[in-house]
UniProtKB/TrEMBL annotation:
Keyword Membrane: yes
Protein name: NAD(P)H-quinone oxidoreductase subunit 2
Known partners and oligomeric status: NDH-1 can be composed of about 15 different subunits; different subcomplexes with different compositions have been identified which probably have different functions.
Family note: Belongs to the complex I subunit 2 family.
Keyword set, alphabetical order: Membrane, NAD, NADP, Plastoquinone, Quinone, Thylakoid, Translocase, Transmembrane, Transmembrane helix, Transport
A Pfam match: Proton_antipo_M
Domain NADH:quinone oxidoreductase/Mrp antiporter transmembrane: 129-425
Cellular compartments per GO CC: endomembrane system; plasma membrane-derived thylakoid membrane
Transmembrane segments: 15-35, 42-62, 82-102, 109-126, 132-152, 164-185, 210-235, 247-268, 280-299, 306-328, 334-356, 376-397, 409-430, 464-486
Length: 519
């Protein structure tokens, strides 16, 4: 094989966005080594510019002629483009909310950004990984960076405890996932590409073997840990409460999006022969996640723990789209994750701002906040109401799309559980909003009574303000102007070759159920 043929087969232009993130990471790392702590004045903006440039570089890849690169290891199809964009945008918003938080803690901002960019890189590669080795290396890049970020505030005992719990449970889940992958490798006769694995398993007639079922269970366990689905959610509340809040924000959106991208690619491509089995398992996980996440959230007194259980419930909602396996199902997943990015990160930005000004995240301490900080009250209220699915906000349309896709596909039990638990979730979201806006002046909490003067000119506060306002605007308008996002989500599914066999089956069934009338 000559060099030009090798270059053509590598098709390295597909990973241009990841290349931009790597270049940005190196600039931040080397700049910090040369300049020192004073680099904090410019490194966040370089990192944000690099991430936004990576998002822009994803746009031409929408219509790329040959999405497969690196000899089949990576696929730059439209579905991966959307998920990579979500992860890059979540990292950019996380950096905006991190500047003041990290500087106030006395730790290095540039090092924090470098680790965050590494996690972003792992998530972006994981979104397009189409081969077992690539999947595992990307997954570990994301996971190990997440462990480091969780324990980044090394002077805080809660951060150290959260990092240790996350590391121990995460290492166990990685080992389980790797064992499932090794079983797949053996059953397929030594294949690592996901499509070839499914083909070889079918040729060998192993669709009904116990080995493929064990591999499926182990792989689902690894994926469920990453998306924080019950019963693999045990790390979530403690890690969310003890970790630095910007890290929690990234884990709740960027890491979760990468997990769902992996779930779609791995289950649809490598396990088509046992689709009934994995749909049965994921149905149980989705119901448990929706029920436990939303019910236990009712009893929480900390905003971070409340959002931790909320994210478990949200994972259950998104799994409905994956389970139905239709065009509308996959599209509703993509749409919901797009709007979840802004409403969830907006809520975390508000929690960071309140914690910076008061030193607490207890729900009762938000009492009467509207009298001292109207912008924070408005932004947090809009984001929480959107997470609860109140119209006409973005979250309402996201949930309606998910539930409609599930109902259309006949998943009535899932949709009914989703509707009931969604109503339950509205209670604990509105409880926080009521705490902020309904209380009388004499019912203000001590933290609000002693609320410091609002000064956006302090170092690092302006990026946080930009992040809050951006999330507020998008969450408010995305519901009313949702058509472009619907189109984006539908096109990303329609143009993805991996999903076409499932969509062809769906269209054939629809044609049988609704035949065209005879002329």
């Amino acid at each position: 094989m000559d060099f030009s043929t090798l270059v053509g087969q590598l098709n390295a232009g597909t990973i241009l966005p990841e290349g931009i993130v790597i270049a940005t990471l190196m600039v931040v790392l080397i700049g910090d080594l040369i300049v020192g702590r004073s680099s904090a004045r410019w490194t966040p903006y370089v990192a944000i510019a690099g991430l936004l440039a990576a998002v822009v570089a994803l746009v031409p890849q929408w219509d790329i002629a040959e999405p497969v690169s690196f000899l089949g290891s990576f696929s730059g199809d439209t579905l991966s483009v959307v998920f990579r964009g979500i992860i890059a945008l979540s990292a950019a918003l996380t950096i905006l909310m991190s500047v003041r938080y990290v500087e106030q803690s006395g730790t290095s901002l540039a090092e924090f950004i470098v680790i965050l960019l590494t996690a972003t890189l792992g998530g972006m590669f994981l979104s397009g990984a189409d081969e077992l080795v690539m999947v595992f290396v990307s997954l570990e890049t994301l996971s190990i960076s997440s462990y480091l970020l969780t324990g980044y505030m090394k002077r805080d005992p809660r951060s150290n405890e959260a990092a240790l719990k996350y590391l121990l449970i995460g290492a166990a889940s990685s080992a389980i996932f790797l064992y499932g992958s090794s079983l797949l490798y053996g059953l397929s006769g030594g294949e690592t590409r996901l499509g070839a694995i499914a083909t070889n398993v079918a040729i060998a007639g192993l669709e009904d073997s116990i080995g493929i079922v064990i591999a499926l269970v182990f792989v689902i366990a690894g994926i469920a840990f990453k998306i924080a689905a019950v019963p693999f959610h045990q790390w979530t509340p403690d890690v969310y409460e003890g970790s630095p809040t910007p890290v929690v924000a990234f884990l709740s959106v960027g890491s979760k999006a990468a997990g769902f991208a992996l779930a779609i690619r791995l289950l649809v491509t490598a396990f088509p022969a046992v689709s009934d089995q994995w749909q049965f398992v994921l149905t149980a996980l989705a119901i448990l996640s929706m029920v436990l996440g939303n019910v236990v959230a009712l009893a929480q007194t900390s905003m971070k723990r409340l959002l931790a259980y909320s994210s478990i419930g949200q994972a259950g909602f998104v799994m409905i789209g994956l389970l139905v396996g239709t065009q509308a199902g996959y599209s509703s997943m993509v749409f919901y994750l797009l709007v979840y990015l802004f409403m969830n990160l907006g809520a975390f930005s508000c929690i960071i701002l309140f914690a910076l000004r008061t030193g607490t995240d207890e729900i009762t301490e938000y009492s009467g906040l509207y009298q001292k900080d109207p912008l924070l009250t408005l932004a947090l209220s809009i984001c929480l109401l959107s997470l609860g699915g109140i119209p006409p906000l973005a979250g309402f349309f996201g949930k309606i799309y998910l539930f409609w896709a599930g109902w259309q596909a006949g998943a009535y039990a899932l949709v009914l559980v989703g509707l009931v638990t969604s109503v339950i979730s509205i209670y604990y979201y509105i409880r926080v909003v009521k705490m902020m806006v309904v209380k009388e002046p004499d019912e203000m909490s001590e933290s609000v009574k002693n609320y410091p003067p609002i000064r956006w000119t302090l170092p690092g506060m302006r990026p946080l303000q930009v992040g809050i306002v951006t999330a507020l605007i998008f969450t408010s308008l995305a519901g009313i102007l949702s058509n472009p996002l619907f189109t984006l989500a539908n096109d990303s599914v329609d143009r993805t070759p991996m999903l076409q066999p499932a969509l062809r089956v769906e269209r054939a069934l629809m044609a049988i159920a609704h035949p065209n009338p005879v002329e």
